[in-house]
Amino acid sequence: QVQLVESGGGSVQAGGSLRLSCAASEYTYTRNVMGWFRQAPGKEREGVAAIYRDSGSVYVADSVKDRFTIFRDNAKNTLYLQMNSLKPEDTAMYYCAAALWDAPLRPQYFSYWGQGTQVTVSS
Length: 123
Prior knowledge:
Layout: E1 4-7, E2 10-13, E3 18-24, H1 26-29, E4 33-39, E5 46-52, E6 58-60, E7 68-73, E8 78-83, E9 92-99, E10 112-113, E11 117-122
Parallel strand pairs: 2-11
Antiparallel strand pairs: 1-3, 3-8, 4-5, 4-9, 5-6, 7-8, 9-10, 9-11
């Protein structure tokens, strides 16, 4: 059963923090890679961060490096994205996704998607 459910979005002021959660079914959580993407209005969906199951490697996009951290809790089948020092340009719908292979962080390579959670950062 494929299931990804995001939560934790909201509205914050610049400089604030949010933690996004992605609760996954067992099947989805054990896929090769899980990641976070975001899409702002009028813009393409972009990869934010990914974590690879077998190697444990983590990838974080340059635009959020040193501010965002991706991690997982295997006991809860949950993926997280800790977002600190938020900026107005971080405003977007954030999606959790999973891929069947060790895919690079490109939307076209991810097969399973959640519904998204909105993050709004005001200046």
